[in-house]
Amino acid sequence: MENYKKYDKLNYYLALFFSGIVYPFINLLLALVLKRLIDSGIARNVYELENAIFVCLLVCIFLAAAVFTSELTKNRFVNNFSKKYRRHIFNEIIASDLNEFSNNSTGDFLATMTNTVSTIEEKYIKSFFSIVSNSSLLLFSIIGMFMINWQLSIPVLIVSLVPIIVMSLLGGKMQAKQNLALTQQNAYVSKVKDAFSGFLVIKSFNIEKQISKEFQNGNDKRADSEFSLSELNNISGSISNFSGYLVFLVAYGLGMFMVINGNTSIGGVTAIVQLVNFIVMPLSKLGLEMNNKKAGLAASKTLNQLLEKVHNPVKDNSNYLKLNRFENEIKLTNVSFSYPQHDEAEKTVLSNINLQIEKGKKYALVGMSGSGKTTLLKLLMRYYKLTKDGNISIDSVNINNINLSSLYKLINIVQQDVYIFDNSLAYNIMLGKSFTDKELNYAINKAGLRKLVDGNSKGVDLNVGENGKALSGGQKQRISIARALIRKTPILLMDEATSSLDQKNTTAIENAILEIKDLTSIVVTHKLNPNLLQKYDAIIFMKDGTITEEGSYEELMKQKGDLYNLCSLTMIN
Ligand SMILES: Nc1ncnc2c1ncn2[C@@H]1O[C@H](COP(=O)(O)OP(=O)(O)OP(=O)(O)O)[C@@H](O)[C@H]1O
């Protein structure tokens, strides 16, 4: 609980005070006042009886107030915890390193943000307070019983220990079953998420039956693991209940013998039975709550393990250099790279790349599929750090030493796969940041979105639906281009950013970007259009992870090398 109380210390301590001290103390008072009430009734002392009734009423009022306040403070703590903890987990995941994030399925994260966190809230946090309150109730009741009659209290307590012993014997099994139930629940969420995300594929390939079978399998496992857990809970609950009845029997039976022998009064037995209630009830609850807490602990461990896996936050602290301007060049020196592989041997994707990108110049990056073009751009974005030899620098500053947010103010990328948020057109371009109408219109015009904006009654407020389902592939790509252009970063990388557009529109957008003075751009393209290629300052040709040619279109065509050969195969005339 140490790690969790920080989320709302005030209500945490208030809840502990009211549920752990105030409530059990008043409860003890009630038993003592009750004893006085019954004994004064049996002694036919009307004055004492009236007094006891009045005090009893007061104690009842305080008891109700204590219960209300302890619930209120506990609920406030849980509420604040829920808000802040979920925000914290979300931020941790969002801050994680791209590579580590990609190694886990989004279903895992989704399940963590839903089931796992709920289990921690429901089972760990709530059980913790219940354990505190019930343990205190138990302790105060034992003290009260000893104050009233210790001879009767001892046998009653011995019988009360049975459920605790049973629970501790079942505890390990319970935790294992809880772990399994949580794993199956998370796998179930992942499966459902996958099926719904791949709905189109399921329909197109007519695989509803197979998917339904897989779902059924996961669903059965989830339900079975929960049933098995509830069975164990049922067994431990029944044993607790039985012990509870036994405790009553001992308290009443022995108590009445003691009354006959003159060792206690009827009021004393009644008060002890009243207190026994607060031993039996907490004991039966304690067993269950302890198991719940263990289950919550298991969820907490699962969550921490996931966070540890992704908790390699992109280091972006203030020790890193802030680069405010791009003045001269990006330089790649002897850059080699392999993707970090967890299961297979590493494969070299880029080898010995040397390249100089000058400010304000426009570069086309072409080459065969799989030659490493995207990887090169990803390294410029520092999505991956160089794991092998080499160095990438911007204006002589090693890219690894640049503060990431300042890097992304200089460099931006437009990728082939565009993620569109379920929000308006304007939101998808501005992405929550504020820009003037002039800036928004500039980006809309340059990215060729004017027709879409003017052609609908809502304009830029048009809601584009989940992942832009109301848009065509080309429109999504235009949004992605507008996103980059509105930010006016001095360096722009485009990775097949116009692959969904026809030749006419591709030419229009590439021309618009070529016209932006001072912009340094590297454009990966498969559409080898000579009219466009001629406009680039240089064409960089990649093959098998190396740069084989670099120069203007005319130079490379004269050279009759790789570009020439590729153009002969795919040239668009
Ligand atoms: N995340 C990754 N993990 C492991 N290997 C990868 C990863 N991404 C790409 N690769 C591998 O790196 C090589 C280069 O891929 P890359 O995407 O850079 O090529 P590309 O030239 O952009 O290809 P295309 O033109 O088809 O987009 C390929 O062999 C690919 O399988």
From TrEMBL:
Answer whether the UniProt record assigns the keyword NADP to this protein.
Answer: no
- Which Pfam families does the protein's record reference? ABC_membrane, ABC_tran
Q: Which UniProt keywords apply?
A: ATP-binding, Membrane, Nucleotide-binding, Transmembrane, Transmembrane helix
Q: Which GO terms describe its molecular function?
A: ABC-type oligopeptide transporter activity; ATP binding; ATP hydrolysis activity
Q: How does it sit in the membrane?
A: Multi-pass membrane protein
Xref: InterPro entries: AAA+_ATPase, ABC1_TM_dom, ABC1_TM_sf, ABC_transporter-like_ATP-bd, ABC_transporter-like_CS, P-loop_NTPase, Type_1_exporter
Name any GO cellular component annotation: plasma membrane
Q: What is its main location?
A: membrane
UniProt domain ABC transmembrane type-1: residue ranges: 14-287
Name the Gene3D superfamilies on file.
ABC transporter type 1, transmembrane domain, P-loop containing nucleotide triphosphate hydrolases
Record domain ABC transporter: where? 330-569
Q: Where in or outside the cell is it found?
A: Cell membrane
Entry's SUPFAM superfamilies? ABC transporter transmembrane region, P-loop containing nucleoside triphosphate hydrolases
Membrane-crossing ranges are 12-32, 52-73, 128-148, 154-172, 242-260, 266-284
ATP-binding is among the record's keywords: yes
Which PANTHER family does its entry note?
ATP-BINDING CASSETTE SUB-FAMILY B MEMBER 10, MITOCHONDRIAL, ATP-DEPENDENT PERMEASE MDL1, MITOCHONDRIAL
* Protein name, as recorded: ABC transporter transmembrane region
Query: Species name for this entry?
Result: Lactobacillus kimbladii
